[in-house]
Specification:
By secondary structure, the protein is of the alpha+beta class. The protein has 13 helices and 19 strands. The chain starts with 14 loop residues before the first helix and ends with a strand. The chain binds adenosine-5'-diphosphate. The site of adenosine-5'-diphosphate has 21 residues, from helix 12 and helix 13.
Length: 559
């Protein structure tokens, strides 16, 4: 039994509520950080997409400038020949400055009635010239000049821009508004019909005597690649003509991959020269993942670390509360047992004295009365010695605790100390004669120790052997090696269960139920152990319940 009882957990433990609140706060902050990252991403997406739109508009303006400049060139003279136009375009250094422009050209309106004269005129310089494809339209808008007049562009000469729906719309709009227009998605006449590339055509009207127009044709992919400078964009960009992200009207896909719409998909419709374009922006997988989960992740980890830290601090505070309450309970129990232990001999002394007083007056015979007094004094002495031992034990405990258990070493003989202790305990052996120890003395049992402390060790072991020995025989053996002296005290009493073999050397520890009914404070073996340790020695026990115990102390001869 120890004086430690299971603590009553009556103090509230705030650790769990704190952990809960901490977790909730962390989650709130994590969510807040997630939302702000998402918002920030949206802002960035908006910003980046605006930048991209600006780039497109800026570049388109340059092409319009080019058309306006060309129109200015035509206005400045009555007739611009094919050669002059070719030289003009060459001077623009177009292949270098605008490699994305597939062709810049000039077209005129030819009514059905004017076709023969037109063909005749054109075939003077280009015998193979014809207007194509054939249509039933009253008006045709063939391209008559095209630069650079390379193999690919030559194929397009005479192409009737009016023959195809999107081009026709754009040309009509151009004349209607007298401004630049752009087509919806078209396939360039330059390209092999088997391998069509989406393209865009820009028109500028020019009305002198009859409607005429200037034209710039682009392959959409080359155009946008140039606009984006071939750079890696922070966003994936898909461009559609019209207002819906219909795969048929897709003219450009920056990374060539198909992306599903998600919360970051931003759709922007822009109007360029009367034509609507839908641009779909989406952050690339890389930029999106990095930004969305990183910051909230850090917030979560730091928040939870704090919550757990506070939880731990509360836990520790709680632990020390429990320890304090355990210490207080243990102290109270010790005081109650110690008082009981002290009171028992005191009560015995008091009762015995009262009994002697009462009886003495009745005894006439002086000798008999003297004997009564002498017996009483002997009895009182024994009880006082018990009291003294208890108080000494308590004093020793406080000395050990404060490190003041001092020892005075001298050369002493273990056998001699043992004899003296047995003699001192003679009264106890008188009560239980069978317990008088049989001693097996060894030789060379001297050492340099504190005599009184070693006496205390032997007395404690002998007293315990008497107390727990059930009145059976006690055997004491001393022996030595060149460097050590050993003493073993063996009884045949109640024994000690193995789980208590180590514990009994601790303060206030008693070996469970077996020691019940036998008075004691659980201090003797603790003090014994401390004394043996101060002397550099060891103490151990061999015992089994019901089979008695042997306590063995081994001390170095000099320490
Ligand atoms: P106390 O005897 O005052 O309880 P001790 O520190 O001397 O305190 O002993 C601690 C415990 O060890 C005892 O309560 C008892 O349970 C056990 N003990 C000590 N010596 C013996 C022994 N010789 N036989 C059986 N049990 C013993």
């Amino acid at each position: 039994m120890a004086f430690l009882k299971k603590p009553k957990h009556n103090t509230l433990f705030y650790g769990w509520p704190v952990l809960l609140v901490g977790t909730l706060i962390t989650m709130a902050f994590t969510y807040y950080s997630y939302v702000s990252v998402v918002n920030e991403n949206h802002l960035r997406l908006d910003y980046d997409s605006d930048e991209i739109v600006k780039q497109i508009e800026y570049k388109m303006n340059q092409y319009e400038e080019l058309l306006l400049q060309t129109r200015g060139f035509f206005r400045s003279s009555d007739v611009v020949t094919r050669k002059e136009f070719a030289r003009y375009v060459e001077n623009l250094n177009m292949r270098q400055r605008h490699p994305e422009i597939q062709a810049i050209g000039f077209g005129i309106r030819v009514k059905t009635s004017e076709i023969p004269a037109h063909l005749k005129e054109m075939r003077k310089t280009i015998p193979s010239y014809t207007i194509w494809p054939e249509t039933l339209h009253e008006e045709k808008y063939p391209l008559v000049y095209l630069e650079p007049f390379d193999e690919i562009n030559q194929k397009v000469l005479g192409y009737d821009s009016y023959s195809e729906r999107h081009r026709r719309d754009a040309i009509l709009r151009a004349f209607e508004t007298d401004g630049t227009t752009i087509t919806s998605k078209v396939f360039l006449a330059q390209d092999d019909i088997r391998f069509p590339h989406p393209g865009l055509v820009l028109y500028l009207p020019f009305i002198k005597t009859a409607p005429e127009y200037f034209y710039i044709a682009f392959r959409a992919e080359t155009l946008f690649k140039t606009i984006f400078n071939g750079k890696e964009l922070p966003l994936d960009v898909e461009i559609f003509t019209g207002t819906s992200p219909d795969p048929d009207s897709l003219i450009y896909n920056h990374d060539g991959k198909f992306h599903k719409n998600d919360r970051y998909t931003s759709l922007k419709t822009i109007q360029l020269y009367g034509q609507k374009f839908l641009i779909k922006f989406q952050p690339t997988a890389l930029t999106k993942n990095k930004s969305v989960y990183k910051a909230p992740g850090i917030v979560f980890v730091i928040g939870m670390a704090f919550a757990l830290l506070i939880f731990r601090i509360f836990g520790l505070t709680k632990k020390s509360q429990i320890e304090l309450s355990e210490a207080l309970e243990s102290r109270d129990e010790f005081i109650s047992i110690a008082s009981h232990e002290l009171k028992t001999p005191l009560t015995a002394i008091k009762l015995h004295t009262q009994m002697v007083k009462r009886n003495a007056s009745k005894i006439e015979d002086p000798e008999a009365r003297k004997k009564l007094y002498v017996d009483h004094i002997d009895h009182t002495e024994i009880l006082s010695q018990r009291l003294e031992r208890l108080v000494d034990d308590m004093l020793d405990i406080s000395r050990i605790k404060t490190g003041r258990l001092s020892i005075f070493k001298e050369l002493v003989d273990m056998n001699k100390i043992l004899d003296e202790a047995i003699t001192r305990l003679k009264d106890q052996f008188r009560v239980i004669p069978e317990a008088k120890p049989s001693v097996n003395y060894g030789i060379n049992t001297t050492g340099i120790w504190d005599k009184h402390r070693i006496d205390q060790v032997i007395t404690n072991l002998l007293t315990n052997a008497i107390k727990y020995g059930e009145g059976k025989a006690i055997e004491v053996t001393t022996s030595s090696t060149p460097t050590t002296v050993k003493i073993s005290v063996k009884d045949h009493g109640i024994g000690i269960a193995p789980e208590f073999h180590d514990k009994i050397f601790d303060r206030f520890e008693r070996a469970g139920i077996n020691s019940k009914g036998i008075s004691g404070l659980g201090l003797g073996l603790y003090i014994t152990h401390q004394i043996v340790q101060i002397h550099g020695g060891t103490i151990s026990v061999e015992s089994r319940p019901g089979e008695g115990s042997t306590f063995i102390v081994e001390l170095p001869k000099t320490c």
